[in-house]
């Protein structure tokens, strides 16, 4: 089982996390970052920057930001291709910019920079 952690105060973040969960119904579970189950499973919240990023847990290994997107993309059809593409800094930068743009056009409150 894999986990996507999201800021549940952010409507955009919640929608993205739920969409990912719906695509990978059996493999990924989305969990709000403040949910007590994280501490129960032994995942400690890591400082203030924890709230400013995207997190993905795969096989008990923690991925944050772009590295999390790369790992999730590897689960998609043609995953190896997506994973390779996202490893190019320009492509991952553009994807993050696009997500930021969508976030601001929806006028959602979000802690992700």
Offer a concise description of the structure.
With 113 residues, this protein is of the alpha+beta class. The chain has five helices and four strands, in the order E-H-E-H-E-E-H-H-H.
Question: Main traits of this protein?
Answer:
single chain, alpha+beta, four-stranded mixed beta sheet, 5 helices, globular
Model description:
- The chain is an alpha+beta fold and 113 residues long.
- The chain has one domain.
- 44% of the residues lie in helices and 16% in strands.
- The chain is built from 5 helices and 4 strands, in the order E-H-E-H-E-E-H-H-H.
- A 4-stranded mixed sheet has the order 2-1-3-4.
- Helix 3 packs antiparallel against helix 4.
- The N and C termini lie far apart (28 Å).
């Amino acid at each position: 089982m894999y986990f996507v952690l999201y800021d549940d105060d952010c409507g955009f973040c919640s929608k993205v996390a739920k969409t990912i969960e719906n695509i990978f119904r059996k493999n990924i579970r989305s969990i709000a970052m403040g949910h007590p189950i994280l501490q129960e499973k032994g995942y400690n919240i890591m400082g203030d920057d924890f709230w400013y990023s995207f997190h993905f847990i795969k096989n008990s290994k923690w991925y944050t930001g772009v590295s999390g997107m790369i790992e999730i993309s590897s689960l998609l059809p043609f995953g190896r291709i997506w994973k390779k593409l996202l490893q190019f800094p320009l492509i991952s930068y553009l994807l993050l910019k696009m997500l930021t743009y969508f976030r601001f056009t929806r006028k959602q409150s979000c802690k992700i920079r």
